[in-house]
Amino acid sequence: MNRPALYLQDAHAISEGIEFAKYAENRGFDAIWQADSRLVREASIPMAAFAATTDQIKIGSGVVDVWTRNPARLASMFATLDDLAPGRILCGLGAWWDPLAAKVGVSRDRPLKAMREVTTAVRALLANETVTFHGDFVQLDGVELDYVYQERKPKDVPIYIGATGMKMMELTGEIADGVVLNYLVSPDYNTRAMEALERGATKSGRSVDDLDRPQLVVCSVHEDRGTALNMARNMVAQYLGQQPHIMEASGVPRSLLESVGEVLTWPATHEQVEAAAKLVPDDIVQMLTASGTAEEAREAVQSYMSNGCTSPVLYPLGDVYATIDAFAGWSGSD
C-alpha cells in the first residue's frame, strides 16, 4: 500500500503550507512532516496550524532536535499538539547537525546516549507516567505532565527518530516506533539502513517490519526532464557540501565531494550554491532525488519503497500541487 506524505521546510509562507496540507489531505495523502528548519522556522507552530485546519491527515515533526528542548518540554509540546489533533501527531526527534549546533553553543557529545535518554523520558511522560531519571543528559525528579483540566491518560503519539548513520539507525530499531529515513541518499543506502534497523529491533524482540519507515525524498517534477533536474541540482550541491559523509556513503565520488567542498562554505551564499551546482552531473542528481517527469519521479520513488521505505515523504521542488497530483492515487507499483 502506498502512503504518500508531504515534507515542508521554510520555502513557503505558513499560510501557503496550510493550503498545501488541506490539498494533500483531500488528495489522500497520509501525513504532513514539518522540518525544524535551520534557524529560520521552528516546527511546532506550523504543525499546530496544519493540525487546526485539517481533519484526518497526520502531522509529524521531521525532525526536532533533542538538545535545545528539555525532554519534559518536548513531551509537553507533543501532548499539546495531540490535544489539537488527537491521534494524528507524530513525534520525530533528531540529533541535529554541525556546524549549526556548534555555532549556537551545542556540543553534540555522545548523540546516541543523548537520544536514548531523551526518547526514554519523552515516551514515559507521554505515557502519563511520573518520571525520575538521572542520566548523563536527562535529569528529571518526579516529573509528570501535570494535567489539571483534562483527563489524565496516555497520549497516542508514536516516536520516530531521524537517523542517518548506522549506529543511530540500530538504536532507532531498538527503541523507537519508527524511523524517518533521510533524503538525498541512494536506494542502495537503504539496504544498509534496513540491516541496522533489524539488528536494533532484534534487541527488543521485534523485527524491522514492526517499525514504520517513512523516507524523505527530494522530488522535482516537471514535464521537461531537464528543467526538473536543474530545479534539484542546487539542493544536491548544497547537501554535497554540508553532509559529505552521508553523500559518500550513498556512493558519491570523493573527488566530486572535494570539488564542491572547495566552493561551498557554511552558511553558503546563493552564489556559492550556484557555482557548486555547475559541478554536479545529471547522474548524481538522479541517483539522489526523484526528478524528471511525473512518471520518472514515481519510478524513482518506487526504488526507495522497494528498498524498505513504507511511506515516501515528498520534498517538492517547484510546483507543490503538481507534485501532490503526481502521487495522489498512485498504487506504488508502476
Query: pLDDT below 50 for ≥5 consecutive residues: which ranges?
Result: none
CATH superfamily of the largest domain: Luciferase-like domain
Portion in strands: 15-25%
> Tell me, what is the CATH class of the largest domain?
Alpha Beta
Report the C-alpha radius of gyration, rounded: 19 Å
Q: What does the largest sheet look like?
A: 10 strands, parallel
Q: State mean pLDDT (0 to 100 scale).
A: 94
What portion of residues is helical?
A: 40-55%
Order of H and E elements: EHEHEEHEHHEEEHEHEHHHHHEHEH
The CATH architecture category of the largest domain equals Alpha-Beta Barrel
How many domains make up the 3D coordinates?
2
Give the overall shape.
globular
Number of strands: 12
What distance lies between the first and last C-alpha atoms, to the nearest angstrom?
12 Å
Number of helical regions: 14
Q: Briefly note the structural class of the backbone.
A: alpha/beta
At the third CATH level, what is the topology name of the largest domain?
Answer: TIM Barrel
Could you please describe the fold and organization of this structure?
It is a single chain. By secondary structure, this protein is α/β, with parallel strands linked by helices. It has helices at residues 14-26, 44-52, 71-84, 100-103, 111-126, 166-175, 187-203, 225-242, 244-249, 254-263, 270-277, 282-288, 294-305, 320-327; strands at residues 5-8, 31-34, 58-61, 64-65, 89-94, 131-134, 139-143, 159-163, 178-181, 214-221, 290-292, 311-317. The protein folds into 2 domains: 5-219 and 294-327, Luciferase-like domain (TIM Barrel), CATH 3.20.20; 224-292, no CATH class. It contains 14 helices and 12 strands. Helix 10 (254-263) packs antiparallel against helix 11 (270-277). The protein starts with a strand and ends in a 7-residue tail after the last helix.
